[in-house]
Amino acid sequence: xxxxxxxxxxxxxxxxxxxxxxxxxxxxxxxxxxxxxxxxxxxxxxxxxxxxxxxxxxxxxxxxxxxxxxxxxxxxxxxxxxxxxxxxxxxxxxxxxxxxxxxxxxxxxxxxxxxxxxxxxxxxxxxxxxxxxxxxxxxxxxxxxxxxxxxxxxxxxxxxxxxxxxxxxxxxxxxxxxxxxxxxxxxxxxxxxxxxxxxxxxxxxxxxxxxxxxxxxxxxxxxxxxxxxxxxxxxxxxxxxxxxxxxxxxxxxxxxxxxxxxxxxxxxxxxxxx
Length: 274
Description:
Elements: E1 10-14, H1 22-32, E2 36-40, H2 43-48, H3 51-58, E3 61-62, H4 70-84, E4 88-93, H5 99-102, H6 112-135, E5 139-149, H7 163-185, E6 188-194, H8 208-218, H9 226-237, E7 248-251, H10 262-273
Parallel strand pairs: 1-2, 1-4, 2-3, 4-5, 5-6, 6-7
């Protein structure tokens, strides 16, 4: 069901790779709610994914951009405002990558060149994006910028590796830059801490299938899906949340406030009996 929550609003959506990605689901929902947007991803990701199918479905144009390069971001913002016919109302940053994870490097044996690359893609790119938007005065008042994160920024998940550090830095950037964006431009900046979700990137983490099952048993409402995260993101893009900013918002079925659930305890006790 659509409510025209984003009718007349314009934005940029980073990171739609395929139909499993949260950015893809968000783009579909933004389109359904009347919003217009451009899609962007790194050139290599665009070759790997199906972004052209999404663009055709939603009537969006694609502007390739490496989010670690300021000149690419400047071109992206300039072209997006030109194509969409004005300043932006929303931006979704849905980018994350760890070379150490891809290469099987343990957290205690990291390649620091890999670490720097992953940190730049996953976190610093968010600062670069906002800096370009800020300097170009590209956001409308009461606009909304959202980045996707994960609770490993606050708690230990051993196999999440240096992505946990990247997400912690991402959340800090949201608060710090969000202050200046709020005071000087009346723009909101928030992060959504989503349940473990079977996206292409998420499935690359060691032990992901076991963990997603564990999280589902721990969460009173079960894991939040990519579709549900898209719905939640829409509320932050809409005018219904105009005074929500500098927040890390947990969208995880209650997992973040759990110590242990009865279901997990029972499964553990059964294991001990064996």
